[in-house]
Please model this.
Amino acid sequence: MSKQSKNPETIALHGGDYRSDPATTAVAVPIYRTTSYQFNNTGHAANLFALKEFGNIYTRIMNPTNDVLEKRVAALENGLACVTVGSGQAASTFAIVNVCQAGDNFVSSTDLYGGTVNLFTHTLKKLGIEVRYADPSDPKNFEKAIDEKTRCFYAETLPNPALRVFPIKEVSDIGRKHNIPLIMDNTAAPIICKPLDHGAAVVVHSLTKFIGGHGTVIGGCLVDGGNFDWTADPKRQPLFNEPDMSYGGAKWGEVVPQLTGANVSFAVRARVCLLRDLGAPLSPDNAWGIIQGLETAPLRMQQHCSNATKVVDFLQKHKNVERVIYPTLHKGAIGDRTKKYFSGGNGALVGIEVKGGVEAGKKFIEALKMFYHVANIGDARSLAIHPATTTHSQLTQEELLAAGVTPGYVRLSIGIEHPDDIIADLKQALDASGKPSLKAVS
Ligand code: PLP
Model:
């Protein structure tokens, strides 16, 4: 019964087909620290390599510990299949490289994590893949950027620092008209937003953040929604329709549904071609660490979100705060998207513009006592950072402004501590940010 549950609290513990370890009946998921798997006989080995039978071959491509995590995350996202990789960055890279080759392009939202901007603007360019940026405040900008070489759209559900919820259905509808899949990075909004339900074809996560949840493990994944027809327009999706000479001439869009009975060509190609060739698997030890976090992620998300709501109320009333940035505070169509796409909370990320610009922002961060000053989000602990001088420091002034990073902006990732303690720490730091520094007094 638990397997059919649609409730994230149950899926996080029972999703997928793991009940207990088949070898020992252990209830907790074991860490399978093995590189390889004994084949039953030569026919079995040949069938596995030819994808005539599915099973374990080598841990760079699959592992039973990772498999439990993959099935649970796929179920949480209402997807059909999931592939774990060594980091969120690897997940974004795989997502693009799974559909684009040299000479192709893709259209990405301008509202992105700084590391993703670097990957798209510089590293993928060196590989011959062109990114075209589109401002998501008008979904039509995505359509304007398409040409015959456009292979996918890419965006984040809840991009910081602007915290404007992405128009998922609006852009995925445009994409589907042209047989272009929408790939959504849902790192900042697991459980509270399900992009696949709104038309996205693929979801990627940095599992490092809210799903792992404890700031202990780096990991990433790609979830195949099973809701996109990769064969509908062969010219649009050549990597799924032309013979792959690295795999006996397989046409992935055709062969995977035939072999598996499921529309999971994206996930299978990412696993058997990209993990095989590029490497970057998630280690089973790290998969285990993320499973521990995942089991309580739905409960933590509730606490993250309810704490963030209280923090926003407090910050709006503090005299040293110039502006508070939170998804529900945006007006008009952008604010409406929060109601349309989120349920059960509006996220843990809160932005503030401290009165007094860069200096006051720095003073505020230095005065925090309980918050950690780190380049991370989604930890159980409360975190703070000044993006202009850290996470986004490699961007040009133009890119900074396009991403919504102003000089005094401070990003908060609200943890699951007691809300009174979170607010008390913010209050004393904000009070300190408005006081003249000792240097100025002397
Ligand atoms: N996507 C988003 C939205 C992120 O915030 C991050 C990291 O901060 C990443 C992807 C990259 O994830 P990782 O650090 O696991 O490589």
